[in-house]
Amino acid sequence: MEKFKNKVALITGGTKGIGRGVAEALLELGMNVAITSRTITAAEKAAEELNKNGKGKALGVKADVRSMESQIQAVDAVIAEFGQIDVLVANAGLGHFASIEDMTVDQWQETIDTNLTGVFYSVKASLNALKQSKGYIFTISSLAGTNFFANGSAYNASKFGLTGFSQAIMLDLRQDDIKVSTIMPGSVATHFNGNEPTNKDDWKIQSEDIGELVVDLLKMNPRTLPSKIEVRPSKPPKK
Asked: What is the pLDDT of residues 107-159, one digit of tens each?
């Protein structure tokens, strides 16, 4: 669509999985996309692959969401390349799963720093640019942000927190014409937590499905805001 041509999205953790699926969908719209990774090699390799197919341009950026300084540098790099940021997809995340007895302090801290504080940093660093563009923020939470489970203390805490954070900033920013939606997927066929997707994962949500959802939300009439969207596989295997 013409209205998306030359618009710019910044996607944290965009080299694979959900972030990659969203990047592909936005590039197909004609948007330019910056994807971040903690290693520049991964970011540039993914951008090179994306540039073979998309209608827009992909840029790889080295950034660590756990650092505010790194997020500011990423935003500066995107603006230097494209001149603006219209969409932020705060997607970078990880999971450590263990009982509270076995959960280490380092695992707890890394989970909260990445999944929750990292989103705060990404939003904070992008805010001035998004105010100028009257942009859209997508946070990628999880059904684990409303449903707790054993061995999920760190992950549940980070995603419950992210869901609450996202809804609060939605209220903070809507008078600035900035939209905020949090997407809460269930089982997704990605490389999350060291998983290697196979044909056995066909029943799961696919990363391109989340990309399609983001596109649908961007196309929605601006008077309407789906602020929290739960996404599930249609027919998971019987247990």
From this structure: 999 999 999 999 999 999 999 999 999 999 999 999 999 999 999 999 999 99
Cα(76)–Cα(84) distance, integer angstroms: 10
CB 193 within 8 A of CB 94: yes
d(C-alpha 25, C-alpha 158), whole Å? 27
- What tokens were used for 158? 């980070």
The Cα 111–Cα 119 span in angstroms is: 12
Whole-angstrom distance, CA of residue 149 vs CA of residue 126: 33
Q: Per residue in 39-48, pLDDT tens?
A: 999 999 999 9
Which of 8, 131, 13, 4 has the alpha carbon at shortest distance from 65? Answer: 13
- Between CA 88 and CA 129 the distance in angstroms is 10
So which residues are the catalytic ones? 155
**Structure token digits, residue 197:** 């997707």
Query: What does the block give as tokens for 32?
Result: 């330019």
N-terminal to C-terminal alpha carbon distance within the chain: 43
The radius of gyration of the chain from alpha carbons, rounded to an integer in Å, stands at: 17
CA 152 to chain centre: 20
Q: In order of start, what are the domains of the chain with their CATH numbers? A: 2-231 (3.40.50.720)
